[in-house]
Amino acid sequence: MENGHSQAFHRAPASVSPPTGFAQGQGSFSGMMAAGQTHARQGSMSLSPQSPPGSSTAAAVNGVLSARSRAVSIPGHSAAQVPKMLTPFDMGDIRILLLENVSQGAVDMLRQQGYQVDFHKGAWSEEELCEKIHNYHAIGIRSKTKLTAKVFRKAPKLLVVGCFCIGTNQVDLTAAAKAGVAVFNSPFANSRSVAELVIGEMIALSRQLVDRAAEMRTGEWNKVSKGCYEVRGKVLGIVGYGHIGSQLSVLAEAMGMSVIYHDVLPLMPLGSARQTESLNELLAHADFVTLHVPELPETKNMMGAAQLAQMKKGAYLLNNARGTVVDIPALIDSLQSGHLAGAAVDVYPREPKANAKDSFVDGLNGWESRLRACPNVILTPHIGGSTEEAQRMIGIEVANALIRYINYGGSVGSVNFPEVDLRVITEADSRVVRICYVHQNQPGSLRAINDILGSHNVDKQHTDSFKDVAYLMADISGVDDDDVRDLYDKITKTDANILTRLLS
Asked: Taking the alpha carbons of 186, 189, 195, 201 in that order, is the dihedral positive or negative?
């Protein structure tokens, strides 16, 4: 189709095998993820390309099923158990763009797969992305790079996006799906880091540590106990009882705090925590209110003047979620009036695109100087998940998702895409090709593809749809080079085609 991807893929032989343990996991998402993490730590397998490095694309196309197949050696496993490393058909090297200083471990994992990886420490603007994105098959970002519909229109080769963070609001997910681009993230890897930060913030606020430390740096000695408290025996109110909120609940109870929480869903509490009937009930009883909700239309300014007024006098507000969930001018008024005793803010509606002096100023949001002047306020530059441990785990998780999708077609874990997977093709499976067919979710699309596949032996097939986009994976056996070319030509010409890839 005119607006679809017209290419399949061919990648030069890599020097590293798939992650260990794929055979035990039988191609499952959990098995592959666990194996990938083991591989990232150990790198224990060896891979021997059957075709010499540097062989041309033309040569690979002429030997689709023979010259491009690669042997993997795993001691103690038969050929029927060992997964075959699949290579995309009919294209050159896979190029990946990594921005915003993502984990070096992820960079290494992707390069070990034989991909060409371009690594940059900063974010790119929309203009720069539109100028250069056409060169890449995959892109990895964090929270500052914005992938808009305009960017996706300029990305004819793009297959997949990896968000090396929790959130995906920086990506136009609908535009990505319509372009046949799967988007993956790491929703849970930094949960512990954020939970620990909240514990530290609560102690620092209750003891006014930030103000005392600032005074000492100016030479002032101000030893006071008035307005300083232990957190033991206090009530922590958690808004959003997901992975972060629930971990925080356990840590807070271990410190002698009582925990209440509010969530839009009825959730089983951990320990002695109790779910409140409403947000207002939580606000009226909590000494500390901490927010852990996603950025949605329903959560925008969910903590405004009315909600802040519902909080106990002398309470503390902590926001390590999203910058839009708190009305900052209302928070400033509540702090200046003395209604709230302090606040910790790690996220903001608009944030600087890069580390720099004099960047968190009034020209950004319009209230920065007023917020900085408030007493007993902890301001941090979006560092909730910024620990070595969290970034390493995020790098492993997202890099594995990119490798799994590029090499094997599995989309389980995608946030905008049908979740489809098949068990692995093994070394014992000869003359097998995997079809990865992204298409419009419209009547007759499956009939059209099955008419094409009907004259071949379909070993396994899985399809699913998500809104306007559908995704089909099928393994076809007993095919030769001419069959592969014929399948590819026919599938890419179907009316519903968005993107077609053949892996073998």
From this structure: negative
Coil, helix or strand for 331? helix
Alpha helix segments (H runs only) across 273-327: 279-285, 305-310
| pLDDT per residue as tens digits for the range 74-97 | 445 565 667 777 777 655 689 999
The answer to whether the CB of 394 falls within 8 A of the CB of 103 is: yes
Q: How far apart are CA 74 and CA 82, in angstroms?
A: 7
Nearest 5 degrees, angle CA 20-CA 60-CA 138? 55
Rounded Cα gap, residues 287 and 449, in angstroms: 60
Model confidence over 12-58: pLDDT tens digits? 333 333 333 333 333 333 343 344 444 443 433 333 333 333 333 33
Q: What does the block give as tokens for 147?
A: 């992938």
Cβ atoms of 502 and 88 closer than 8 Å: yes
* DSSP, residue by residue, 174-191: HHHHHTT-EEE--SSTTH
Strand-strand pairing, 274-275 and 258-262: parallel
Give the residue from 192, 189, 135 showing the smallest Cα distance to 400.
189
Give the pLDDT confidence of 304-330 residue by residue, as tens digits.
999 999 999 999 999 999 999 999 999
Domains and CATH numbers, the chain: 22-187+390-428 (3.40.50.720), 191-379 (3.40.50.720)
Mean pLDDT of the chain: 86
Residues contacting residue 480 through CB under 8 Å, at least 6 positions apart: 65, 431
List Cβ neighbours of 297 (8 Å cut-off, separation of 6 or more): none
pTM above 0.85, yes or no: no
| Torsion of the alpha carbons at 453, 454, 457 and 462, rounded to the nearest 10 | 60
Average pLDDT over residues 282-288: 98
Q: Which residue type, as a one-letter code, is found at position 432?
A: V
Q: Which residues contact 374 (CB under 8 A, 6 or more apart)?
A: 332, 335, 336, 343
Say whether pLDDT at 213 is over 50. Answer: yes
Residues whose CB falls within 8 Å of the CB of residue 161, separated by 6 or more in sequence, listed in order: 138, 139, 140, 141, 147, 171, 176, 181, 182, 183, 184
* Active site residue ranges: 322, 351, 382
β-pairing verdict for 70-73 and 46-49: antiparallel
